[in-house]
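Appendix B.2, paired examples.
Example (i):
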Amino acid sequence: KLLRTGIHVMVSDEEPVKICNDKLLFYNKLKKLLYPVIPTYDRLNKNISSQLVVKERFGAGSKLTGINLSFSESQTFSRNLHNPIFQPFVKGDEFTIDMYVTKRKEVKGIIARERLVVVGGESKITKTLKDNQLEKLCQNLALDLNLYGHVNIQCIKDNKNDYNIVECN
């Protein structure tokens, strides 16, 4: 209806949005594409890691996220979620990468920011930086997922200086 009136909404097609809104589907898709994505499980298992992250499987935001939890803490925390997923806790520096992707699949702008202060899952203080490796990784990911419009990717750089993709909004 909007398009018929000449209004173009900057939003990806349904399939890429579905992939990005489902953290388990996102993990499986990125794993298949050989991206460095944090392993994600829909069942709690002692073999995942000694320290875990527990959050909702669907949607964005992290208000209901348990970070750096033990197995027993993860069990308890997950009872308060509708569709919990479990990931190994990855210690490191957190980054947000914002970009604009045109309908022609051209990345017109990309900005990487280090997340210095995070409150309730939202960045309150960030610092922009130039990191060609991180920018290229995220640009390729956005194009491989066929994303369009404003794209926001979260990553963690671990103690081995490897990037770990967390999610895409």
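Example (ii):
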Amino acid sequence: NAPTVQADAIGAGSALFVSSNADYISVSDDSSLVFTSALSVTAWVKFTAASASQAIVGHFDYPNNQRSWSLTWLDDSTDYLRWFVDGTGSAYKYNRYAWTPTAGQWYHLSATYNAGTSKLYIDGVSVTVDAEGSQPTSLHNSTGNLFIGAVGNASTRADQMNGNICQVGIWSAVLTQAQIQSIMEKTYEELT
């Protein structure tokens, strides 16, 4: 079972992304962003509308063959939370979970990767993923920017977020479900 978190405490300090404004955060590539064998990503997310594909966070610039990983919600005939992983920069594989979020509700989303094995978590609970084919045994060392609220599309951006994102965390380790649940309960100041 997932821990109970006070909703009013979640959004403190969150960033609002408006897709029509082309809002996103870009972080220049750095050696501290290289994760080839073990990676965990967490974020609190609140969608303004549960429509259109929306990227949460990723080191993912697809036309430039700089794809490594991305946590994205995809609005399709079946909606999915997807965790994209790529070992070559140009041939990503996904891990997906059929899921439609409720607009205006906060969710804690997490993904982990460990040498070819991926997991997804919603509100601190592991969900069973449908994986696309064999997963890469290591992640591509992308030299592109890391994006929050979008993915790279050459010189433009795509899948822009329409809602709030806060407490994005990226670890060079595979977090356990207990660790993810502990992170959910912490404030910015407590995340060290």
